[in-house]
Amino acid sequence: MREQWSSKIGFIMASAGAAIGLGAIWKFPYVAGMNGGAAFFLLFIVFTLVIGLSMLISEFIIGRGAKKEAITAYKTLAPGSPWKLVGQIGVVGCFLLLSFYSVVGGWVLIYSVMAVTGQVIKDGANYPDLFDYVTGSPLVTLLGLAIFLLITILVISLGIKNGIEKANKYMMPLLFIFFLILVVRSLTLDGAMEGISFILKPDFSELTGEGVLYALGQSFFALAVGFSCMVTYSSYLGKEVSIPGSASSVVIMNIFVSLLAGLAIFPAVFAFGLEPTEGPGLLFVVLPTVFAQIPLGSIFFSLFLLLFLFATLTSAFSLLEIIVSAFTESGKRSRVKVTWIAGLVMFIAGVPSALSMSALSDFKIFDKTVFNATDYLVSNILLPLGSLLIAIFIIHRMDKAIVREQFTMSNQLSPIWYKSWRFVMMWIVPITIVVVYINLLGIIG
Q1: Mean pLDDT, rounded, for 407-429
Q2: Which of 14, 251, 296, 392 has the fewest beta carbons under 10 Å from its own?
Q3: Checking phi first, is residue 100 left (phi over 0); if not, alpha (psi -120 to 50) or beta?
Q4: For residue 76, what is the domain's CATH number?
Q5: CB atoms within 10 A of CB 65
Q6: What are phi and psi of 365, to 5 degrees?
Q7: Is 121 inside a domain boundary?
């Protein structure tokens, strides 16, 4: 018998865990910092509520409608057609995403161990040099990558209820508790108001066309939509759960965590006269500098890294799950065996990204390191492409009766909500993605 989530809250926590990770805690602060702060955040909220939410609902509908993982779902709903390619693109996309995602997860893991043992925040510490050491040492980065993937493998090998759901039920509440502690501490610093204004008071003169592109990409990346991860997760969902309600809960939690990340980081950054435009090193270079100047800073920084590690792991679970489920759906292969093989292949695939700041730093793809090129390919090309194909599929190919049934099941929403969702998926999502692609290719702007 196929596994199911044991409860609605278990599904929501797991889906939120899949969505809340590097996107909300690592990528959002530095991308927002480099693209105008509050203006970027406001645009990100709009994209997330209109496009991201609609996309999440769509993936939930496809998954529960087919009761199959990503590839088999499209085969089931559109037999004899090439639409299975959408699921295949999703599996490949998750593979590429996890290949560099696990590298950052490894950094967080190494930093967490060092912080807890008092090796990060200490007298005379040089944080840029420490970041260069962690990311530029082949041995350290590969060790972090291996341990991070090992934890992910162990959880996924246990299955849906005993692995993913159980881990998220503990990790997600802890993440929110830790985050609230950090936000309260950050907001009580002298000079914190400038940081609050930076993330809450929009100045659209600071927002560029590229910033708009990044805001759209962030709304996809932060919700884990476009690669059919949520198709796989919702395939384990029971009929008693409202899809629009569950999707709304995940989106609200994601926006809330992004806001908490901004309120935890930017007031502290501005309070000590530092720049929010540090880039990917913001959390590893700027934040230790901030926490070093705060009473009990070592403890607060350790808390921050632990919650960051929790969030990174819960997202990694979803990425590996879509890969594993694609090879175990038939029931002929052992989940444990497939998980270990997939994890080993993932480690090998992650090596080039792990070495992008050391042994392979001079190797460039379109003037980008392997790590940055993979990130760009996934976030700005494959995720929007996957979302575009899903939008076309659910509106023009999937049986409308199944779509309506899944949308309206177990909820008392007015019919206007279903019509509004269809309108967004039929017009807003495709047009927005096409315009962004045209802009990306330099045809306009």
Answers
A1: 93
A2: 296
A3: alpha
A4: 1.10.4160.10
A5: 24
A6: -120, 115
A7: yes
Name beta bridge partners: 365.
368
The residues, any chain, with a CB within 8 Å of residue 250's CB and separated by 6 or more, are 12, 15, 16, 19, 56, 223
Q: Token digits for 212?
A: 């708009």
pLDDT tens profile 56-115: 999 999 999 999 999 999 999 999 999 999 999 999 999 999 999 899 999 999 999 999
State the pTM of this model: 0.89
Q: What's the pLDDT band for 2 if we cut at 50, 70, 90?
A: low
The amino acid sitting at 414 is: S
Cα–Cα distances in angstroms (integers) from residue 141 to residues 305, 311, 317, 343, 409, in the given order: 17, 19, 20, 16, 47
In a domain, 229, yes or no: yes
Cβ neighbours of 190 (radius 10 Å): 7
Structure tokens at 208: 């560029």
Let me know if residue 186 belongs to a domain.
yes
How is 402-430 classified by DSSP, letter by letter?
A: HHHHHHHTT----HHHHHHHHHIIIIIHH
Q: Classify residue 331 by burial, with Cβ atoms within 10 Å: 0-12, 13-18, 19+.
A: exposed
pLDDT at 279 over 60: yes
In a domain, 279, yes or no: yes
Confidence of residue 445 (pLDDT cuts 50, 70, 90): very low
Angle at CA 29, nearest 5°, toward 28 and 34?
100
CA distances to 293, 305, 309, 314 from 155, in Å: 37, 20, 14, 10
- The domain of 133 spans 8-440
Greatest mean pLDDT among 21-30, 202-211, 433-442: 202-211
- What percentage of the chain reaches a pLDDT higher than 70? 96
